[in-house]
Amino acid sequence: MIVTTEALALMSHSSPSPMKRSLLSLAFLGLTFTAPAADQWFKGNTHTHSLWSDGNDFPEMITDWYASRGYQFLALTDHNIIHATEVWMGTQAIEKRRKALGKTTVEKYTARFGKDWVQTRELDGQTEVRLRKLDEYRPLFEKPGKFLLIQAEEISAKFEKSPIHINVLNNQTVLKPATGSSIAETMRANLLAILAHEKSSGQPMLAHLNHPNFQWAITPEEIAEVLEEQFFEIYNGHPMINYEGDQHRAGNERIWDIVNTLRTATMKAPPMFGVATDDSHHYHGEESSPGRGWVMVRSPKLDAASIITSMRAGDFYASSGVTLDELQVSGKTLRLRIHAEPGVTYITRIVGTPVGYDAKTGTVSVESDKVHPTRTTYSSDVGKTFATIEGTEVSYTPTEDVLYLRAVITSSKPHPNPSYANQTEMAWIQPWAFANSR
Predict the structure, then answer these.
(1) What are the tens digits of pLDDT across the range 213-259?
(2) How many C-alpha atoms does 345 have within 13 Å on its Cβ side?
(3) Which residues pair with 122 in a beta bridge?
(4) Terminal CA-to-CA distance of the chain, rounded, Å?
(5) How many angstroms separate the CA atoms of 395 and 54, rounded?
(6) What is the Cα–Cα distance from 229 to 416, expressed in whole angstroms?
(7) Domains (ranges, CATH) in the chain?
(8) Nearest Cα residue to 134 out of 82, 203, 81
(9) What is the C-alpha separation between 130 and 147, in angstroms, rounded?
(10) What DSSP designation does 50 have?
(11) N or C: which end of the chain has fewer CB within 10 A?
């Protein structure tokens, strides 16, 4: 059975009614994700901030950074705003955001784009700079088949004190944060608002849940419950998002496996896909800097609709440095070839959960956590390592029934700009070999 990207989009955004669960179950049996045949991989970042919200550089400077370093697409995702209104910002406020020494932010901006491009005014004794709109700076960078800017936004909602941030790509207008009666319902309300906007605009959109461990806000169980969400950040380059978890709370890798186990085993729903992003805020040598994580998307064309269609089909991988020369899934068999760097070794783990896994759970108290004072624990069958393969050539076919499988590649090369201690470059392959597939 082949499930089209349109059908997947419908299933992932419809309400979690009994009818929806039935549709998901029917589609899930023998599920195969497909995307249009394409030979080209496009590198992109889908989580970036600028002076339009809480970043510390101009969008042109940020776009120039990515475009000059081999990226093919970029989404600037400022909080609850798109770059489409008239905004002026005082130079004192601009410079207050940077910690680095040397040329000021405005001086570097002017040196790069010229005095004729930088618009200033005097107001109440202060110099202000106009933040250029996307439609103004887009022509400086976009080239057909070479580089693309996708309009986007980080919808920054919350339930009580818990931040719930969801990025939406290719939205045509600002989407205000929605609220709900719980963390899960707040997530769902925002995702349904995105779906409604997608339908009314006629433009495909992609939503991904950001940094669930930021302030320990969202549990795996809450994520699993919201079937409208099909993407989350397996890696986010901001140092404050608790990627590794702690002794009581799951890190991002463990979250992914818990969510996918609950969805495939209990809800008979497809597993969630994982993206890697920068979540960069700082561009002058400070802590939340660009270039840490990205997605590689296989797409026939470099436009927003094609990129989103391929990602919805799962035809992409997430990376913090490891690059693939080949990636193919045929039935339950995964084949990949890693682009080898001299002196670097690679280990690929095949991870998943078997059918008939040990479903016993426990609880652990987290006294410091006021929102989730207890967390659920799971057996080692959840996110079990089925194989560990050394080298650059990987071929794997499961020998037992599995709910899902995914692959994670870890290299021996230290990350050049780490966000946590002892970080090395990695890549994450999307789940395949779903339950009952043939």
Answers:
(1) 999 999 999 999 999 999 999 999 999 999 999 999 999 999 999 99
(2) 4
(3) 127
(4) 9
(5) 44
(6) 32
(7) 5-85+133-432 (3.20.20.140), 86-132 (no CATH)
(8) 82
(9) 25
(10) -
(11) C
